[in-house]
Design a protein that fits this description.
The chain is 44% helix and 15% strand. It has 340 residues and is α/β, with parallel strands linked by helices. A six-stranded parallel sheet has the order 2-1-3-4-5-11, sandwiched between helices.
Length: 340
């Protein structure tokens, strides 16, 4: 014989509260007191109650599901951000539905269509390079969404992130202030990646303001892979005139450059300085430790979740939020050797 399923009335009776209180605790956890949430959670655990998501969606016209589309999960920054987002949404009683685009706007559009068809309440997107089809979809469905990793206060839709151009300008300024004038760049692929292209623009702007330029033979765009970064560094080191500093589009690319410089029996930073971007966990443990720009990834993604949760609850939500990218000076950068 199949036992009778546990319902919301059973939970209410066990917790000694009304069914309305149980409903509020399940549908709007932040709207009830911590004491009530603990009491409800204890009752649910004791009885093994599982809320009927389909019934809740029908009654509220909400699935309490947030979608997020990232370029790839093969990236420590995205992994950290997704984890922070998941933790925040879980505390708010929301489920995270995740997908990847491979940096392809058409794939992103198709994934967004799939998520919308499954009833997501809001959507988090990386950057602002989207197809017209996706923009029309979001508008026609009146879907709350937020772009993360970029800060665009001039746009009419939400953005949370750093000013990537300004951050790269400051990173390049650090190398220039040390006395470097021969600066190369190993950048991430800029196609369909407005964060990467903004960083390149920031580097070029900083050099131009000091009467310098980024030569074509000192500029490489590569995929987010150590091997590709090493090949770019190998090409730089084979030049008749070597740069005295290399600024990288992210920390993983910087790791590849560091490895290749070491393979050529050169010393960082005595022979060549290396600058990263992102401040991944490994960056401070390397030898030499990596000078980089720190981005508060956890904050960006948590704030994105908070924005959508507030919008869906009808609460005020800040449309644009800029996080600070801060320079972290470690061992991989120093003044160039005299007559280098």
């Amino acid at each position: 014989m199949k036992s009778k399923s546990v319902g919301i009335r059973d939970v209410a009776a066990h917790a000694g509260v009304s069914t309305a209180s149980i409903s509020r605790a399940l549908n709007s956890p932040s709207a009830v007191s911590p004491a009530l949430r603990m009491k409800v959670d204890a009752a649910i655990a004791a009885l093994g109650y599982i809320p009927d998501a389909a019934a809740r969606a029908l009654s509220s016209r909400r699935t309490r599901t947030i979608g997020a589309i990232v370029p790839t999960v093969d990236n420590a920054m995205f992994a950290r951000g997704i984890e922070a987002l998941q933790q925040y949404l879980s505390l708010q009683g929301y489920l995270l539905l995740l997908s990847t685009s491979g940096y392809d706007p058409e794939t992103e559009f198709r994934q967004a269509q799939n998520m919308v068809s499954r009833g997501i309440d809001g959507l988090i997107l990386r950057g602002d390079v989207h197809t017209d089809g996706l923009r029309r979809l979001l508008e026609s469905q009146r879907m709350p969404f937020v772009n993360v990793g970029v800060y665009q206060p001039e746009k009419p839709y939400a953005s949370i992130g750093a000013n990537n151009e300004d951050a790269a300008w400051r990173a390049t300024g650090h190398l220039l202030d040390l006395g470097h004038t021969r600066i190369a760049m190993v950048a991430a692929m800029s196609a369909h990646n407005d964060r990467a292209s903004a960083r390149v623009t920031g580097v070029r702007r900083a050099l131009s303001e000091r009467g310098l330029a980024l030569p074509d033979n000192w500029y490489y765009e590569v995929h987010y892979r150590l091997d590709d970064a090493r090949q770019a560094a190998r090409a730089l080191l084979a030049q008749p005139e070597r740069p005295t500093a290399v600024i990288c589009g992210n920390d993983v690319l910087a790791y590849g450059v560091l490895l290749e410089v070491e393979r050529h029996d050169l010393h960082v930073p005595r022979d060549i300085s290396v600058m990263g971007f992102d401040d991944l966990e490994w960056s401070r443990h390397l030898r030499p430790s990596l000078t980089t720009m720190h981005l508060p990834t956890d904050e960006v993604w948590s704030r994105a979740g908070e924005y959508l949760v507030n919008v869906l609850a009808g609460r005020p939500a800040l449309l644009h939020h800029e996080v600070d990218a801060s320079l972290v000076v470690r061992e991989s950068t120093a003044a160039p050797r005299p007559n280098a």
